[in-house]
Amino acid sequence: xxxxxxxxxxxxxxxxxxxxxxxxxxxxxxxxxxxxxxxxxxxxxxxxxxxxxxxxxxxxxxxxxxxxxxxxxxxxxxxxxxxxxxxxxxxxxxxxxxxxxxxxxxxxxxxxxxxxxxxxxxxxxxxxxxxxxxxxxxxxxxxxxxxxxxxxxxxxxxxxxxxxxxxxxxxxxxxxxxxxxxxxxxxxxxxxxxxxxxxxxxxxxxxxxxxxxxxxxxxxxx
Length: 222
Description:
With 222 residues, the protein is of the alpha/beta class. The chain has two domains: 2-119, Response regulator (Rossmann fold), CATH 3.40.50.2300; 126-216, Arc Repressor Mutant, subunit A (Orthogonal Bundle), CATH 1.10.10.10. The protein contains eight helices and twelve strands. The strands form three sheets. Strands 2-1-3-4-5 form a five-stranded parallel beta sheet, sandwiched between helices. Helix 2 (33-42) packs parallel to helix 3 and helix 6 (152-163) crosses helix 8. Pfam families: Response_reg, Trans_reg_C.
């Protein structure tokens, strides 16, 4: 899953990026409202962490521009402004959740995971497809009850497919959601990683739909 963090404090941005990447996310960052708005308007994100007190363009204006343009990705507002009136302003602009500074890093991770689950129609933290289980909160994967170890990139690929079971996901869509904007999309890394995930969860779980992409579905009964 791919996250955009828009925060003007470099130390906090760096720490958020570290924590979110350790939690299995691909992360892009922006330090002012104009750059953040541009990225959110032109790139694909599963969720955004948005500060309100940004230089060049404030967070509320960034959010309103996205919503007016039909950009529907979940947005978690992160700010030092704790008054209810300011929270209401954020929600009225289209925010999905709100965390007030200071905060626990784990809280941001859990809230983002919940926002992404709900955006794809999942209410429970555990996703299941056939024998495969993915615990979105703990970042754990199992097959037939046995734990499976995945690299960060493998986990992001499986997580995106598990959030969209039964849907054909194109190569472009998958890359947009599992890699940051600096990734070389001309490489064959994605195909290699898909092959590794298949070996770990069962080759029959991820089908290649010729000319269209990849499909995660329950294997047919024996």
